[in-house]
Amino acid sequence: MTQIVKPYGDTQNDGKVQLSFALPVKPDAQGKEAARMLILSMGFDEAEITCMRDLGEGFTHFIAYAATSASVDVSKIKVRVVETPVMDMEATDLYVQEHLGREITVVGACIESDAHTVGIDAIMNMKGYNHRFGLERYQCFNAVNMGAQVPSEELLAKARELNADVILVSQVVTQKNIHIQNLTRLIELAEAEGLRDKMLFICGGPRISHELAIELGYDAGFGTGTYSTDVASYIAITLSKKQAE
Amino acid sequence: MLKLDLDTNLVSRARAAATKISSDFDWLFDGYSSVTIERTVLRLMGIDGATEDGKPLPNLIVDQLQSAGALSKGAAIWIANAMHHESLSAQQVAEKVLHGELQLTALPMAEPQTLYDLLASLSSEMLGKIKAQKAQREDFYQKYGPRREPAIYVIVATGNIYEDLIQARAAAREGADIIAVIRSTAQSLLDYVPYGATLVGFGGTYATQENFRIMRKGLDEVSEEVGRYIGLTNYASGLCMPEIAAMGAIERLDLMLNDAMYGILFRDINPKRTLLDQYFARMINAFAGIEIQTGEDNYLTTSDAIDKAYTVTASQLLNESFAIKSGVKPQKMGLGHAYEIDPEKENSFTYELAHALLTRQLFPEAPVKYMPPTKFASGNIYKTHLMDAMFNFVGQLTGQGVQLLGMMTEAIHTPHLVDRSLAIENAQYIFRAVKDLGDNLELSPDSFINRRANSVLKEATEFLEKVAEEGMFAAMAAGAFAEIKRPENGGKGLDGVFERDPEYYNPFMDQMKKELGL
Predict the structure, then answer these.
(1) C-alpha–C-alpha distance, residues B75 and B66, integer Å
(2) Are residues B348 and B239 in the same domain?
(3) What is the pTM of this model?
(4) Hey, which residues of A are catalytic here?
(5) Residue-range definition of the domain harbouring residue A25
(6) Are residues B184 and B281 in the same domain?
(7) Alpha-carbon span B93 to B86, nearest angstrom
(8) In this structure, are residues B294 and B336 in contact, taking their beta carbons and an 8 Å threshold?
(9) ipTM greater than 0.95
(10) Is the torsion defined by CA of B191, B410, B298, B479 positive or negative?
(11) Which one of B157, B166, B267 has the shortest CB-CB distance to A57?
C-alpha cells in the first residue's frame, strides 16, 4: 500500500523544513536575497530567511525556513539492515556453545591512516562501553585487537595466521571520504589474497551504515550507537547459520 | 565565592607521591637521549630542509650517525666538528652530507674546547632568537591586554593550511583567543616532521615549521586588526615531541599540547621514549614561555567520567611534577580535564561542578585547559549545543583558564565555519550572562560537591601512593593507567632511545638548564 509523506511542521503535508548554511556573500540585502533565491532554486517554496549572521572573511550564515512540494512513497523504500536479534553477553556465549560449539576468532583493527581506536576499543576491549563488555570478555570469542594505524596487509596476514573467522574494521576519521578509500583497499586486498570468502568482513564507524558496508563488499556495517552486543550477536548468529548450511 | 573545603592533608600527600614518582626518572633524563632529541639539536643549530622524497635533513643526519654508532656522543659535536673543519655553516654541512660529499665521522676530531666554544655561540644565537620571540609575545599582551579567562579556544582542521587560515581569521574576528590547528590523523606516529606548507591532511593539517609560520603571520595581522593577541597552538606529542616544541619556539607558538604520558597510554609509544622526549620538549616550552597543555580528557573519553574522575586528578598531579622537572612555571601549566559525564545521569552538572572546582583549586595558578563534551555528543546537534552551553557555564562559574569550545557537530565532522561561529556565540553569551555569579555563591561544608571533590582527591591520592610504591613503569605495565597495559620495553620508538656516552653533549639542554635554574 502506498504511503506518500512530506515533511511536517505543524500541519499535515505543509512540507516545512529548516535550512542552515553559509554563503560567500556580505550580510546585506543583496546577500539575503541571494540566499533566498538559492533556496528557491533548490526547488523549495515559501523561502524565508529568519537569521543572517556575519561570519567574517566575506561569509554570511543564513538560517531559513521553506516548504517543499516533494514527497516520497515510504512503501517503495527497501533498506538493508542488520536483521539478527540482539542478545546480551551471557546469551551470546550460550548461543555459540549450543549452535557452533567452538571458539570464534575475531581480529580487529583501525586500519591505514586512522589513529582513533575509540570505536574498535568500545567493541572489542574487555571493558567495552556504556555497561556492555567488549568481545574480549566473552567466553565464545578469541578477540585480537591490533589497535590503530594497522596496514591492511598486516591485518590480513594476522587473520590468516590465526585462521580468523571474522575481520572487524573501524574507521573513525572520514574527512574527504578517506574511510571509503581505506575500506575499499582492504576488501580488494582480501579478494586478491583469496581471503574474502573465508571469513566475515565487518566494518564500523560513525559514518558507516549496513547499506554502505554491503555496497563496499562487506558482510555487515555498524554505525553510531552500536554496542558490542550488536556486533557479537550478529557474528554468533551469522556464523552458526553458515555452519548449519 | 565558590570554594571547596579540601582536605589539605590529602593535597600534600598526593603531591608528595607525584613528586616521588617523577623523581624516580633522573637516571633516564640524565643518562639517555633519543633520535628526536638529537634531531631537535640539529634543528636548533639551524639545519632545515628535506630530500627530494621528503626525508628531513635532521633525520638523514641522525640516521647516518646512528648507523655509524656515533650518536651516543650527541649529534651536535659531529656537526660542530665538520663546521670547524670545513669552515661551513651547519646547514651547509647538512647539504654536503645530503649530496654524499661529507662523511661526518670520517673527519679528524678537533680539540673539544674549540667545538664547545663553537656550539656555545650557536646555542646562544638560537636561544637568543627564541627569547626574542618570547619577549615579542609578552609585548603583544602588554599592548593588547591580557587573555580573557576562560580564554576562547577553537580548532581549525581543514587539512589545508591556507583554508585553515581563513577559518582562523574568521574565528578571531568573532572572539576566539586561541586557535588550534588540529594535526592530520596519524602524524603522532611519524618519526619525522614533514617539511613545508601542506595542502592535504585528514582530519587536520600537518604540523610543519612552514605551516606554523604561515598561521602565526596571519594571526599577527588579525591580532592587530582586532586589538587582541590571538594565541596559536599545536601538538608537541607523538614521536617528535621536542622537534615540534623547537619549531613552535622558533615560530612563536603560544601553547603546545604536551602531555607527559599521553603518547604511552593512548598512542602506544614506548614509555622510556615518551618520558625522555617530554622532558626535553617541556624544557624548550618552558624556555620559550610556551604554555603547555595536558591531555587528561582522554582518560574520560575511554572510561566512565565519574568512576574514573580520580585518574584525571592523578594525571594532573603527575603532569605537574614532570613539568616542574623541566622548568615549566605553574602559570604555564595548562593541566587538562573534561566535561564527559553521561548527560542522562541525574546531577551530572553537580558532579561536574565538583570535578571542575577540584581542578581549579588544586592548581590555582594554572591556566587549566577545560575540554568539552565529546563522548555523548551525537548527530542531534541541538542537544550537543545545549550540552556545550552547560559546559560553558561550568567554565565561567569555576574560572577555568582555557575553554576548548565544543562544536554542535562534534560527532559528525571537523567544524564547518558556521559551527565554529555558533560555538563562539554560545560561549560569549554564557560567559557574559554568568560573569560574576561565582563570586555570589558559597558551598555549604557538608554539600555533595564538597564531599564529592574530597572523595575524588582521596582516590587520586591513594592511587598515586600505590604507583609511587610500585614505580610508574611497573604500574603502567600492570595496566594501572587508563586500564591499558604498557610494558617498559613495548610500544613504538624504543629503538630511537640510546644511552649517552660520557662525552655526550647537548649544548641547548645545558644552556637552557642553566638559564631555567635546573
Answers:
(1) 9
(2) yes
(3) 0.90
(4) 127
(5) 4-73
(6) yes
(7) 8
(8) yes
(9) no
(10) negative
(11) B166
